[in-house]
Structure formats: structure tokens, C-alpha cells
Amino acid sequence: EAAVTQSPRNKVAVTGGKVTLSCNQTNNHNNMYWYRQDTGHGLRLIHYSYGAGSTEKGDIPDGYKASRPSQENFSLILELATPSQTSVYFCASGGTSNTEVFFGKGTRLTVV
Amino acid sequence: GDSVTQTEGPVTLSEGTSLTVNCSYETKQYPTLFWYVQYPGEGPQLLFKVPKANEKGSNRGFEATYNKEATSFHLQKASVQESDSAVYYCALTQSSGSWQLIFGSGTQLTVMP
Fold first, then answer.
1. CA spacing 20 to 30 A to B47: which of A76, B6, B21, B85?
2. Residues A1-50 pLDDT 10s
3. What is the mean pLDDT of residues A66-88?
4. Is the pLDDT of residue B96 over 70?
5. What whole-number distance in Å separates Cα of residue A8 and Cα of residue A108?
6. Phi-psi map region of B41: left, alpha, beta (phi>0 left; psi -120 to 50 alpha)
């Protein structure tokens, strides 16, 4: 069974603080993705990766960094969190050609 | 860049009625098209995909035809059930080069018993 695990599942952060969202996949997939989900906007791509050591900017990368230290792990980093980054974040992994992409259960982040 | 536009939601239907969710896309390359479904508290999951133009994909009574000329990929179901209540996303990925997976804004479907 394909598995993508996100941690934490819920997070409250203070404005200006640093936040790290973690994602682990056991699918041996090359491609990994970070999305945010907001009402009216659907799923918007923040960063993605083709494999260990690679990170690419998606459609809305400003204010976010990403790190892919290994095939299994892909982190999203908010160096200076702002209230506008309050959202639900989803990590996903996909094999070559994205035949099927598997999502985690999401992380609800609230920045106060 | 690539983009996907789909029916503005929410959509409320009675059980047994038909569903159409419109999806159109823009891309300079040759895409693979997908429909994903998301239930409350879960991440999106693949409903079905269609990699080739003018072919149909289907699953659980849902279907969509990849119309390359019209750049459309509308989701249809002849008779919805209460258990179909969910958010539906149209998505595309390019068939070569960048493997970005781009989603539409989602359509919330509620089916009343």
C-alpha cells in the first residue's frame, strides 16, 4: 500500500517564527510535491522535487523553501511565518510520468 | 504556464440525478489528464486518468473523455449517490519535461438523499 506520511498533522505557529513541515514516503517515488489548499483556490503547487538533492519552484514559492535530503523525505520550510500562510498543506509523491500520485492526509497550519 | 479551469462550486444534486463538472485546460505540451476526488479529512486520491487524446477514462460510474480539439475533460455520472459527496479536482501533468501536477480549483459536490 502506497504511503505518504505528514507530520505534524496540526500546528499553531507565531508570526515571524520558523516552521518545518515534514513528509515521508515509502513508495520509492522520484517525484514529490508540496501543495497548499485554500477555499476558492483548490490545490496550488508550492515546491516539487525530482529526487534527492533537487528542489524546484512551483506556482507560489514565495515565502517557502523546500529540502529533499533523501528519496523518502521532503520538507517544507517557512523561515518567517505570516498569517497569510495559514492553510492546509498536502505532500504527495509520484513515480515517473505521474501515473498515480499519492497524497498524505494534510497538515493544518495556523499562524497567529 | 499550464492551467486548469473547472466548474465553480458548490454543486448540490438529488440522488439519482446526473452530474457534469466542466474542466478545460491550457498547456503548450501534450498532457495526461486526471480526475481526483477528496473526501473530508483526507488527501486527494486518483479517480481515473486518461493519457491519450480522444480516449475515455472511467471509474465507479464516473467518466470523462479527453477532447484534445476542445481542450476539455468534463466529468460525468449518470446517477449520483449520496456517497459521491466530495470535492472533485481536474488535473494535468505534462507528458515530458517538467512533472508538475497542476490542479483546478475543485468542485464541491453534495448529494441529497
1. A76
2. 669 999 999 999 999 999 999 999 999 999 999 999 998 788 999 999 99
3. 98
4. no
5. 8
6. left
Q: What percent of chain B has pLDDT over 70?
A: 96
Smallest CA–CA distance, residue A23 to chain B, in Å, is 13
**∠ CA B91-A62-B45, rounded to 5°:** 25
Helix (H, G, I), strand (E, B) or coil at A7: strand
Nearest to B89 among A43, A45, A98 (CB): A43
Output the CA torsion sign for A37, B88, A34, A21.
Answer: positive
Strand, helix or coil for residue B113: coil
Q: How many CB atoms lie within 10 A of CB A15?
A: 11
How many percent of chain A have pLDDT more than 70? 96
Please state whether the peptide bond connecting residue B51 to the residue before it is cis, i.e. omega within 30 degrees of 0.
no
Q: Which three cell numbers stand for residue B110?
A: 453534495
Q: How far is B99 from B95, CA to CA, in rounded Å?
A: 8
Selected residue of B42, B99, B108 to mutate for chain A interface (largest A Cβ count, 10 A): B99
User: 3-state secondary structure string, B44-75?
Assistant: CEEEEEECCCCCEEEECCEEEECECCCCECCE
